[in-house]
Structure formats: structure tokens, C-alpha cells
Amino acid sequence: MTTTTRPPVVRPEELIGAWELTSYVSVDEGGALRAGPLGPDPRGLLIYSADSRVSVSMMRGDPPTAGQEGPAPRFMGYAGTWRLSGRQIVHDVTVSSHGYLVGSRQTRRLAFDGALLTLSGSAGAAGGPPQERVLTWRRVAGGRP
């Protein structure tokens, strides 16, 4: 008989506080990793409050190229409410830098080890099929209430 070890369910109080983005990658159908939509050096801050509010701000960390115009976003952010649902986290978006996200429900798989929080899920890619996106966050020192 084989048994599968499942990670423990995360308690909401374990997520409360501030988190700094350490990695944001896209995973293609073959499992290959590449830079996510915010480039090779993304920056970000994720805040979960005890009253179920969430705020996330992310941007490209690499400097813009002089005269560069194009579809690559430099910043994205949203805020709303959050809740846990089993081994997933749900963000209900009320404001966003991208209008199409307002009113949406963003559900992500969650992996947590105390210092690192990994959120993953499928996201639409501009003009293409949905892609798996994986964001890794590190708790900010003193980032707990």
C-alpha cells in the first residue's frame, strides 16, 4: 500500500503580513521555465491583513530601454479581499491597474513553508493559450503584525 504525503493545510494567521517577490516565472507545456511577464528581475510586495484584505504590487526590476515602446507592462497591481480554500488562496479583486481584473476571482495553488510562499496557477497570455505562472514570495523581516 502506498501513501501520499500531502502538505499541511495553511492557517490564515500564518500568511498575515508582508511578502517580497523573489521569483516570477512562466512554465510552458513541456515544463520549461522562462521569465514571467515582468521580465528576469521582477520586484513586488504582497500584503495580507488580518481583516482579509490583500494588496499586491509588482513591477519590472530591469531599467527601461531608451525609446522602447511595446506591450510589455512595467507595473501591475491589485487589491481586494482574500481567503483560503483548502490548499488554494482566493483573491477577489476590487481595484486593479488592469481593468479586466476588477471584479475577478484569482485562485492560486499555495505552497508554504513559513519563510517562503509559492502561488501558482494558470493565467492568460496575450494572444496565446493560458500559461502556468509561479510566483515565489519571501516573508519581509518584521512583516508580521
Could you describe the 3D structure shown?
With 145 residues, the chain is mostly beta strands. Helix content is 0%, strand content 51%. It contains no helices and nine strands. The chain has strands at residues 17-27, 33-35, 42-48, 53-60, 75-85, 88-96, 105-112, 116-123, 131-139. The chain has an eight-stranded antiparallel beta barrel with strand order 1-3-4-5-6-7-8-9. It is globular and about 45 Å long. It starts with 16 loop residues before the first strand and ends in a 6-residue tail after the last strand. The mean pLDDT is 86.
Give the N-to-C terminal Cα separation.
44 Å
What composes the largest sheet?
8 strands, antiparallel, barrel
Q: What does the average pLDDT come to? A: 86
Shape type: globular
Alpha plus pi helix count:
0
Structural class: mainly beta
Q: Could you give the order of strands across the largest sheet?
A: 1-3-4-5-6-7-8-9
Helix content: under 10%
**SSE order in H/E notation?**
EEEEEEEEE
Low-confidence stretches: none
**Oligomerization status of the protein chains:** single chain
β-strand number:
9
Percent of residues in beta strands? over 45%
Radius of gyration: 16 Å
